[in-house]
Amino acid sequence: MKFVDFTCRKLTEEDSPDVIKFIETYFSPRCIATQIFKLNAQMESNFTRVRAKTVIQYNVSLGVFDTKGKLVRVNMARMQKKNETCHYPTTIGKDCPQQQAHMRFYDCLHNDLFDKLGANKLMFLCMDTCHPDYHGQRLWKKMRIYELFESFARENECDYLISSGVNIYIQKILKEAGFSMIREIKYSEYVDPITGCKPDLHLSEIHTSAMVMCKKVA
Question: Of 101, 151, 204, 206, whose CA is between 20 and 30 Å from 31?
Fold first, then answer.
């Protein structure tokens, strides 16, 4: 798909080196793990690198490129069936308490989604990031990113699109794209299910809560 000076297409494993470099540069320093759970930037970069390599194999992720073929936006996605475990390597971050706390937070956010939605297969959208030069240009809308994901989900017999709105800006975009909230966890009220303690989170004015949001595939 083309729009003025941009082209949007599926990402392939051949794109992995460029995608990983892009995500490490523009996603990892700004993600919830680094900003809120105070995860070491190098550890988050290592984890993100493995996630990206795993997710791109599902063949439903999208990249937006400029006229010179430069990657300017990445929207990753993976699919999961009911009773199927996520395919991320279980050893990643096992020796990092902050990474484990971060992963437990997401487990709480995504708990029982299949039963709650009565779904057999879900498409999870993740690692959405844009080059700083294009912030505010709404490439996600111009390139019909979420419409394309809905088409991929339909082709792969997924019942819902799932995405996590971890700050007020992402939540606003998802709502505009037709997503509705399933669950919300306020950062200031979150209690770690293992430690029983409230994590010492580094919150900003845009980080008030995390929402898991869905859109039914028509």
Answer: 151
The pTM score is 0.91
Backbone φ and ψ for 160, nearest 5 degrees, come out as -145, 155
Helices 16-26/41-56 angle, 10° precision: 150
Q: Is-contact 7 70, C-beta < 8 A? A: no
Mean pLDDT by 10-residue block, N- to C-terminus, for the chain (218 residues)? Answer: 76 94 84 71 74 90 94 96 73 70 88 96 94 91 95 98 94 96 94 87 86 96
Question: What strands, in cross-sheet order, belong to the sheet with 121-130?
Answer: 2-3, 6-10, 62-65, 71-81, 121-130, 160-165, 209-216, 180-186
Length of the chain counted residue by residue: 218
Domains present along the chain, CATH in parentheses? 2-216 (3.40.630.30)
